[in-house]
C-alpha cells in the first residue's frame, strides 16, 4: 500500500498587501497592535467595574507598549546575542528593532517594572492589584503575537511527520521543504486558553480577588507551558545547540518559581484586596 505523507503547506506572505510595495504592512505588526488595543478595552471595562478611572487604561497602554518593545528588545540582546550587540561595530543595531529580535521574557520583565512605576503614583492601584488585571489581556496579546510569528514563518518547530505538520515555505532555514511542528500555533492556542482561565477567575471573584493570585497563576501557566513547547522548537541561536535546556526554558524556570511564590502569598493576609473606592469616577457609565 502506498504511504502518503500528510502535511500543511504554509505559503502565507508576511505582508498584508504584497503587491503594494510602498505599503509594507505586515500581519505581525497588525496582530501585535491588535493585542494592545483589545487589551486596553478589557482593562477599561475592569476599571469601570471596580470604580477606578477608566481613563487610566490609556496610560497603562502607553506604559505597556514602551515596556514591551524596550524590554523584549533588551531581552533578546542580553539573553541571546550579547557577544554580537555589545561590540562597537554592532552596538547601534540594538535600536534597529524593525530587523527582528524580540524576547518575550524580556518583554514580561519590562511590563512588570513599568507597572511598578505606574502604581507608585496611584495608591488606589497597588502593584500586584494592577498586575492581576493586566495579565488577563497580556495572555490574549500573547496569543495574537504568536499567531503573528506563524504569519511571519518564524520561531518554527522541529521536523515532524504528524499530519498537521507545516512546510514553512518562507522560513529562513536551509530546508524549507521539511514538515515541522507549528510550534507558534501550539503556543498561540495555549495562551488563548490561559486567557479564558484568567478571565473566568476574575469574572467570578472580581474585586475580592487576593492580590497576586492571577499574576502568579499567569507566570506558572504561561512559562510552564513555554518550557514544554520549547522542546518542539528549533533553537533560536547557535549557542543553544547541545544544551539540555535552551535559553527560553532556562528563563522560564525562575518565572514559574516566582509564580508559585505569588500564588502562595495570595493565601496570606498580606494579599488582602485594597478597599473598594467609595467615590465612583465612572459614574454614569454603563456597567
TrEMBL record:
Any one GO cellular component localisation term in the record: plasma membrane
Keywords recorded for this protein, A-Z: Cell membrane, Membrane, Transferase, Transmembrane, Transmembrane helix
Keyword Transmembrane helix: yes
Transmembrane regions listed in the UniProt entry: 27-48, 60-80, 100-118, 130-148, 183-202, 214-232, 247-264
PANTHER family reported for this sequence: PHOSPHATIDYLGLYCEROL--PROLIPOPROTEIN DIACYLGLYCERYL TRANSFERASE, PROLIPOPROTEIN DIACYLGLYCERYL TRANSFERASE
Function of the protein: Catalyzes the transfer of the diacylglyceryl group from phosphatidylglycerol to the sulfhydryl group of the N-terminal cysteine of a prolipoprotein, the first step in the formation of mature lipoproteins.
Name of this chain's protein: Phosphatidylglycerol--prolipoprotein diacylglyceryl transferase
Organism: Flammeovirga pacifica
Lineage start: Bacteria, Pseudomonadati, Bacteroidota, Cytophagia, Cytophagales
Amino acid at each position: 500500500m502506498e504511504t502518503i505523507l500528510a502535511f500543511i503547506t504554509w505559503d502565507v506572505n508576511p505582508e498584508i498587501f504584497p503587491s503594494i510595495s510602498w505599503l509594507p504592512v505586515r500581519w505581525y505588526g497588525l496582530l501585535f497592535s491588535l493585542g494592545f488595543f483589545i487589551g486596553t478595552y478589557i482593562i477599561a471595562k475592569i476599571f469601570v467595574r471596580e470604580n477606578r478611572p477608566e481613563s487610566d487604561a490609556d496610560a497603562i497602554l502607553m506604559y505597556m507598549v514602551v515596556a514591551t518593545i524596550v524590554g523584549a528588545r533588551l531581552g533578546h540582546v542580553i539573553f541571546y546575542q550579547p557577544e554580537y550587540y555589545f561590540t562597537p561595530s554592532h552596538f547601534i543595531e540594538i535600536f534597529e528593532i524593525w530587523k527582528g529580535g524580540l524576547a518575550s521574557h524580556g518583554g514580561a520583565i519590562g511590563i512588570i517594572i513599568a507597572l511598578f512605576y505606574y502604581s507608585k503614583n496611584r495608591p488606589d492601584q497597588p502593584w500586584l492589584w494592577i498586575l492581576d488585571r493586566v495579565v488577563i489581556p497580556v495572555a490574549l496579546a500573547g496569543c495574537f503575537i504568536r499567531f503573528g510569528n506563524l504569519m511571519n514563518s518564524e520561531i518554527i518547530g522541529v521536523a515532524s511527520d504528524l499530519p498537521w505538520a507545516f512546510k514553512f515555505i518562507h522560513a529562513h532555514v536551509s530546508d524549507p521543504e521539511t514538515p515541522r511542528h507549528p510550534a507558534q500555533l501550539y503556543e498561540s492556542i495555549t495562551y488563548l486558553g490561559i486567557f479564558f482561565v484568567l478571565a473566568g477567575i476574575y469574572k467570578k471573584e472580581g474585586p475580592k480577588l487576593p492580590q497576586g493570585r492571577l499574576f502568579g497563576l499567569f507566570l506558572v501557566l504561561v512559562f510552564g507551558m513555554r518550557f514544554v513547547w520549547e522542546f518542539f522548537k528549533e533553537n533560536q541561536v547557535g549557542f543553544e545547540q547541545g544544551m539540555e535546556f535552551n535559553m527560553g526554558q532556562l528563563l522560564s524556570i525562575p518565572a514559574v518559581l516566582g509564580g508559585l511564590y505569588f500564588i502562595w502569598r495570595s493565601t496570606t493576609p498580606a494579599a488582602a484586596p485594597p478597599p473598594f473606592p467609595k467615590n465612583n469616577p465612572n459614574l454614569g457609565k454603563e456597567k
